[in-house]
Specification:
Its cofactor is a divalent metal cation. Residues 131-207 form the DDE Tnp4 domain. InterPro entries: HARBI1-like, HARBI1_dom. The protein is mainly α. Helices cover 56% and strands 0% of the residues. The protein contains eleven helices and no strands. The protein has helices spanning 3-10, 14-23, 26-31, 40-53, 57-64, 68-83, 86-89, 98-109, 151-177, 192-211, 237-251. Helix 4 packs antiparallel against helix 5, helix 4 packs across helix 6 and helix 9 packs across helix 11 (237-251). The longest helix has 27 residues, at 151-177.
């Protein structure tokens, strides 16, 4: 199989797939050894293909040389093993990293002391909307001004959107890379626990692809599928004052 076809099929290149399997401890790889003798590598590849393609289990199972019930079992086994290594692939900035993070965000929209961008996206079941006006404005969370009345508020909203675009692009690329997350019409018919496992596994593998600089190869470009902005919930007066202080100090 050519390298390009490997990436399109599994979203990881051959070397990264080998590294992923090597990083899984031998005892964990043994845990997914199927009684029928399906090698662990084949099981990992079948799950990668399932996450990447968004195909039905039956389709992936046939392509992988197993029955649908067998693949369902394989999916559960592989996800359980992958999630044991979540903290290896999903890492939040440490305290010593925050000045750099704040500087990177400030260069986007000139809003001070930003350390993350929050948003929501639909995956089968409707999750809470995030990162827009639906969240209350808290001292630790800045939201857009509803119905801006001054030029400063308009400028703040514009730069807030520019800063927030980071998470929009992230969701777009994540869902384009792993098409199982993009099927918003109810494709993932699983329990909430299993759906969370699938989503976390996709995030882990996405970070691994970025870390290894695996090129993004597929016909369709990234699509966001983001939650539309909705009416904001009420904010505390003190939190609104905090946002107003930032607007007056940085956007007047």
């Amino acid at each position: 199989m050519e390298e390009r076809h490997v990436i399109v099929t599994y979203r990881l290149d051959r070397a990264t797939i080998q590294e992923l399997c090597a990083q899984l401890e031998p005892d964990q790889m043994s845990a997914i050894r199927h009684p029928t003798g399906i090698p662990p590598l084949v099981q990992v590849l079948s799950v990668l293909h399932f996450l990447a393609s968004g195909s039905f289990q039956t389709t992936v199972a046939i392509e992988s040389g197993m029955s649908q019930p067998m693949f369902s079992n394989v999916l559960s086994r592989v996800l359980s093993v992958l999630l044991k290594y979540m903290r290896r692939y999903i890492v939040f900035p440490q305290v010593e990293d925050l000045p750099t993070v704040k500087g990177d965000f400030y260069s986007l929209g000139h809003i001070p002391n930003i350390i993350s961008s929050i948003d929501g996206t639909h995956v089968a079941l409707v999750p809470p909307a995030g990162g827009d006006s639906r969240y209350p404005n808290l001292s630790l969370l800045l939201t857009p001004v509803r119905n801006p009345r001054t030029r400063a508020e308009e400028c703040y909203n514009k730069e807030h959107g520019r800063t927030r675009r980071v998470i929009e692009r992230t969701f777009g690329l994540l869902k384009a890379r792993f098409r199982c997350l993009h099927m918003t019409g109810g494709f993932l018919y699983y329990s909430p626990k299993k759906m969370c496992q699938i989503i976390v596994a996709c995030c882990m593998l996405h970070n691994l692809a970025l870390r290894r600089q695996v090129p993004f190869l597929q016909e369709d470009g990234p699509e966001g599928g983001l939650v539309a902005a909705v009416e904001p919930v009420d904010s505390e007066e003190e939190d609104i004052d905090n946002r107003n202080n930032i607007i007056h100090q940085y956007f007047q």
